[in-house]
Write a structure and sequence with these properties.
The complex is a heterodimer. Chain A is built from 11 helices and 9 strands. By secondary structure, chain B is α+β, with helices and mostly antiparallel strands. Chain B has 18 helices and 39 strands. In chain B, a hairpin with a 2-residue loop joins strand 3 and strand 4. In chain B, helix 11 crosses helix 13 and helix 14 runs antiparallel to helix 16. Classes of the chains: A alpha+beta, B alpha+beta.
Chain lengths: 360, 790
């Protein structure tokens, strides 16, 4: 119990606090009425004297009253709880150290999570989602995107082609002239589809599965998630590319993560760039994960090549824009420090629970 | 591309640090992937200063030397070398050092005198053939200085990640040129020791020409565009000098002989591949670029006999092919130790033709890699001249007649016009004409500003075959200006006119629901073994395991369940949202559908001690509940029906959209039953949700225990109740099923709870009794189902 209040009436009342711990359930209720009761409570009666006091007296006395009221309430509640626990023990005994009951809780796949975070950031920057088929024609996957036939750039993409047979004579499907059918090697054909579907401005973010003729080994998968974005309008320049992707990186990693843009090559963008962020493992000091560079390559980007705009029917003299692409699986592997990409395709409940934040 | 730091330093005449190279090359677009230090075995060898060399007291041929090895330390070394002299410097290897010949030095006594280490000869260090005496160091370097520093032997091998169009960077000269632009210095070709002062000038011709008895030709239709050749007689083939061998080793090449090594050296220096023929083995005095004839074969340098197709260009003598143009030379005409006359070829092959030949033969080579990217067509004679220069310096001989430069259709590098306004449009910053001119001059272009029409005429350098249009030049301007100097402040923008596809929100809702119901999202490979007769095959699968597109998702999920079982994980609940593929008709893209599939096995909930160790397993009813939830999300208005002992989801229009049931799997004895479902998600479907007035009057409920024969499905019972109770019956739920004693054979008892509610008034008991009677009568008369006598 704390020191005296300086008001004899109150101190007399507070003397009763000490007895509360001895009361039974009825006693607690009686005491509650006797002290705090709205009609005959002793403390309530003191509250009622407040209006008759001078303003100078009223403040300190009111405050003291409230403190004492809180003391009584706490002491009475504590005794009630103690009595309840005791009653429970006397009847059905309960050991609250026994484990509680859990529920199954699912989680989204780490790659979905990364993809969703990226999509959400681009939505906040005025982008909508666009999607497209996973089986495409050579024209949409390569030629419209300024990969010339027989060009070394084609070596960048080891392509899986589909065995769908030949078109019958007289087939007048417009895709007839678009070359062989393949599994898209990037989500970029969707850029062409979006631009062909309507006039600029375009501002889309494109998630999806892409395919490469790669072995299924610790660092490759023949199918993996990709995400890219396209922004085309009048007056969009490389400074906008740099500003938007810097803003993205600062939202995705942290507002203080250092970023750098360096020149690169993609057939469908020019100028092309690679965006590096400070290595999230060593924070710039150099480690095996970043090949001692202190930087981690996270995405490729660039100004949409004028030929790509023209191939999609957009006036490349009037409109310009940028695009980027990145691999959420790679980001997830870095984030969770996964040693083998195949873990993302294993459906291992232990791993999914752990990465999903659930202890299972 | 592997690059030697030392080699670059030779071009730039300045030391380069690895950290600086990493930074500069990354910002130039040629990032360093890996660095390997090549100081190697000689790293511990230092400069030793012999301060005293006294005769050995017990041996005439030996001398006892006091050697200063730096840091004020001295070692006594006993040596038998005749040329040791006090006051001179020699390579010193201390106790514990292992020399390139494998010898590990120990402290020992030679005829009573202690020897702690060794003064070394060239041969012991693997630096030359001279075994006669110590390697005398002509240096003033302090004792203790690493030998590799004094001799310039330390090097680093940088692995660069190059853009596929930058053929100019496939030689040290190109990389040095980029670094020079970045450093603001000039790159110069390294001086070759013992190089001849002067070389004969070339003879340029547009028609065939001969030198040294070899006529050079380019047949129309072949891939040859320009063909230079020189004939050198009196060559002595042998090992390359140390400096040359070191350069090649630094880029990962094994030295072969001083002729082949020269062609490789020039290729790695200038990016232009060359070929050396043994002049004595060329037949008929002809070297011709022509298409292969059908049936022609060639044994290439890798000792494989290859069939040539008439689309491939070869270099042929009078009797047949001696090389596959741009790809690999022939074995027969290769230079050997016996060669005395060398025909050196530097040619330019069409990149696309080279690429298709290389692909057809499956024969990638250092040469084809470069020809596919197009070396500098205009610098071809320079490359041959360099090769002749280095060859004469290392293998001797003399050039017979003037070398030939056959160029049937000579031309100039392209001229491109660049608008200042276009630079501003694409980059978003204003650069002046002067600044643009400076950046393009830095990469070797000749620039003529035309201020009157706001553009510049740019003659691109011959080595930049990748620069063919205005946008290519804008990229160069940005690159040399520096991406890091572009501002990165967000400017106002218009949002796009596009909206999300409807599937996007639907899949997100299904994913959230499945997660909330305790399922984990999984991803399976969409390609695998055939999953059904309609599985679309790949044309070029890497393995038979990944040879088809999946026609459903659940097959992959079952494999994941089995993998979990293999890890002793019993509780598995997975779902996947992804694409399944079906045949789309001959020559057409497959039909794609977006699916939700799930697999369930193991405990219905995490084991808890209140279950007494008997937590129930997931069963049909868990499956059905999930399936119904997923179906209504995947296709609003869909319903689940029973069909042939399994559950089928149908759209409102009656089309089958999914199935659920037990799944077959390779399951261990301790596993629970495995269930699964798969549903096609509707691309276009409107939500069926909307406002319905909330009840304002209380409901009353009645329980009804019925004896239901097994021949009557509960669904029909409920249906009958609904029809009979129309208007007042709000809902029917099953509260219990009883099987066993006290019931007629072939029946069970099912208890239902019926909830009644009036539209706008509270029902009185008699209202409810009335409708209950109606329902019971209907059950009796339509189904023969009666109340269970209690």
């Amino acid at each position: 119990m704390t020191e005296a209040t300086g008001y004899p009436d109150l101190d007399a009342l507070r003397a009763r606090l000490g007895q509360i711990a001895e009361l039974d359930a009825d006693g607690v209720e009686r005491e509650r009425v006797a002290v705090l009761g709205r009609k005959q409570g002793a403390l309530t009666a003191l509250f009622k004297t407040l209006p008759s006091l001078s303003p100078e007296e009223r403040g300190p006395f009111g405050a003291a009253l409230n403190r004492v009221k809180a003391e009584f309430e706490a002491a009475l509640d504590a005794r009630t709880a103690a009595l309840a626990a005791g009653a429970a023990q006397a009847g059905e005994r309960i050991d609250l150290t026994m484990p509680g009951r859990e529920r199954w809780l699912g989680a989204e796949h780490p790659v979905t999570k990364v993809t969703r975070e990226i999509v959400d950031i681009f939505r906040s920057l005025g982008f909508a989602v666009a999607t497209g088929p996973e089986a495409e024609t050579e024209w949409l996957n390569f030629f419209a995107l300024n990969f010339p036939p027989n060009h070394p750039a084609l070596d960048l993409h080891d392509t899986l082609y589909l065995d769908v047979g030949d078109r019958p004579a007289g087939d007048d499907d417009p895709e007839r002239e678009h070359g062989r059918i393949l599994l898209r090697t990037h989500t970029s054909p969707v850029q062409i589809r979006v631009m062909q579907a309507g006039p600029p401005p375009y501002r889309v973010v494109i998630p999806g599965m892409v395919y490469r003729a790669d072995p299924f080994d610790p660092s490759h998968a023949p199918a993996f998630a990709q995400i890219e974005a396209l922004a085309v309008d009048e007056g969009i320049g490389m400074v906008d590319l740099k500003a938007t992707l810097t803003a993205f990186a600062h939202r995705f990693f942290s507002p203080t993560t250092p970023v750098r843009f360096r020149p690169s090559y993609f057939p469908f963008t020019e100028p092309s760039a690679e965006l590096d962020v400070e290595c999230q493992i060593c924070h710039g000091s150099g480690c095996p994960a970043c090949k001692q560079t202190g930087w981690m390559e996270i995405l490729g980007c660039g100004m949409v090549h004028p030929k790509v705009l023209e191939n999609a029917g957009v006036d490349s003299e009037k409109y310009s824009g940028w695009a980027f692409g990145m691999g959420p699986a790679r980001v997830a592997m870095n984030r969770y420090q996964l040693p083998d990409i195949r873990l993302l395709y294993g459906g291992d409940m232990r791993l999914l629970s752990r990465l999903g934040g659930e202890a299972s | 591309m592997k690059v030697s730091r030392r080699w670059l330093e030779d071009f730039l005449k300045r030391p380069l640090s690895i950290a600086d190279l990493r930074g500069r090359l990354a910002m130039l677009g040629a990032p360093v992937d890996a660095v390997e230090s090549l100081a190697g075995e000689l790293a511990p060898v230092v400069v030793g200063l012999v301060e005293a060399a006294e005769p050995h007291p017990n041996a005439d041929r030996l001398r006892v030397c006091q050697v200063a090895i730096g840091g004020g330390e001295r070692r006594q070394v006993v040596t038998g070398a005749p040329n040791v002299e006090a006051g001179r410097r020699y390579p010193f290897a201390g106790v514990g050092v292992t020399l390139p010949n494998g010898l590990t030095l120990e402290k020992r006594k030679l005829r009573g005198e202690i020897s702690e280490g060794m003064l070394c000869s060239e041969i012991e260090l693997g630096l030359g053939a001279d075994a006669d005496g110590l390697m005398t160091l002509e240096t003033e370097a302090d004792p203790g200085t690493p030998l590799v520093d004094v001799l310039g032997l330390d090097d680093d091998r940088l692995e660069l990640d190059l853009a596929p169009v930058r053929g100019d960077l496939l030689g040290h000269k190109g990389i040095a040129r980029e670094l020079a632009a970045s450093l603001g210095v000039i790159a110069r070709l390294p001086v070759v020791p013992d190089a001849p002062a002067e070389l004969p000038p070339f003879r340029r011709s547009e028609t065939p020409l001969a030198a040294g008895g070899v006529e050079i030709r380019i047949a129309p239709g072949s891939a040859g565009r320009r063909f230079t050749a020189a004939v050198i007689e009196g060559v002595t083939v042998g090992p390359s000098p140390a400096w040359l061998a070191r350069r090649l080793e630094a880029v990962g090449q094994r030295p072969i002989n001083n002729v082949v090594d020269v062609t490789n050296y020039v290729m790695f220096e200038l990016g232009q591949p060359l070929h050396a023929y043994d002049g004595a083995k060329l037949r008929g005095g002809v070297l011709e670029s022509r298409l292969a004839r059908s049936g022609e074969r060639l044994r290439t340098l890798d000792e494989v006999e290859r069939a040539l197709a008439p689309t491939m260009t070869v270099v042929a003598d009078a009797e047949g092919p001696v090389g596959v143009a741009g790809v690999m030379g022939g074995l027969e005409s290769e230079v050997t130790d016996a060669t005395t006359t060398v025909v050196l070829e530097a040619a330019w092959w069409d990149p696309i033709a080279t690429r298709s030949t290389r692909r057809a033969l499956g024969l990638p080579s250092e040469a084809s890699q470069r020809f596919e990217r197009g070396p500098d067509l205009w610098a071809l004679p320079d490359a041959l001249r360099r090769a002749v220069e280095v060859l004469l310096a290392t293998a001797g001989g003399r050039v017979v007649e003037q070398p030939i430069d056959l160029w049937p259709e000579p031309g100039h590098p392209p001229r491109i016009f660049l608008r200042v306004s276009r630079v501003a449009q694409i980059l978003g910053i204003e650069l002046g004409m002067g600044e643009i001119e400076r950046t393009l001059t830095a990469i070797g272009a000749t620039v003529s500003p035309k201020p009157e029409d706001g553009r510049l005429a740019v003659d691109v350098p011959g080595w930049r075959g990748d620069l063919t249009s205005e946008i290519d030049l804008i990229e160069e301007v940005a690159r040399i200006h520096g991406y890091d100097r572009l501002p990165d402040e967000l400017r106002p923008y218009r949002i796009g006119a596009q909206i999300d596809p409807p599937l996007e929100a639907r899949t997100a809702a299904i994913r959230r629901a499945m997660m909330g119901l305790g399922l984990h999202e999984a991803i399976t490979l969409p390609i695998g073994p055939a999953t059904g007769p309609g599985s679309v095959p790949l044309q070029n699968p890497l393995t038979a395991d990944h040879a088809f597109l999946r026609d459903r998702l659940s097959v992959g999920l079952v494999r994941q369940v089995e993998a979990n079982w293999a890890n002793q994980v019993r509780d598995v609940r997975l779902f996947e949202i992804g694409t399944a593929f079906g045949p789309g008709g001959p020559g057409r893209r497959p039909v794609e559908s977006c699916r939700i599939a799930a697999v369930l096995t193991g405990g219905r909930r995490p084991a808890h001690w209140t279950d007494g160790g008997e937590t129930p397993d997931l069963d049909w009813w868990d499956l059905k509940g999930l399936f119904e939830r997923a179906a209504s999300l995947a296709n609003p208005g869909a319903s689940v029906q029973v069909q042939d002992g399994s559950l089928v989801a149908r759209s409102e229009q009656g089309a089958e959209i999914g199935r659920a049931g037990p799944l077959g799997a390779d399951s261990p004895a301790w596993a629970g039953p495995l269930f699964g479902f798969e549903i096609e998600i509707a691309e276009r479907a409107a939500s069926k949700l909307g406002f319905e007035p909330l009840p304002t009057v209380p409901a009353s409920s009645r329980d009804l225990a019925l004896v239901v024969p097994w021949s009557i499905e509960s669904g029909r019972v409920v249906e009958t109740m609904r029809e009979a109770g129309t208007g007042l019956l709000e809902s029917v739920s099953v509260v219990d099923e009883y099987r066993g004693a006290g019931l007629p054979d072939g029946t069970r008892s099912v208890a239902y709870r019926l909830v009644f509610r009036g539209r706008d008034r509270t029902l009185r008991d008699r209202d409810v009794e009335g409708v209950m009677k109606r329902i019971q009568r209907a059950l009796e008369s339509q189904l023969g189902v009666g109340i269970r006598a209690s």
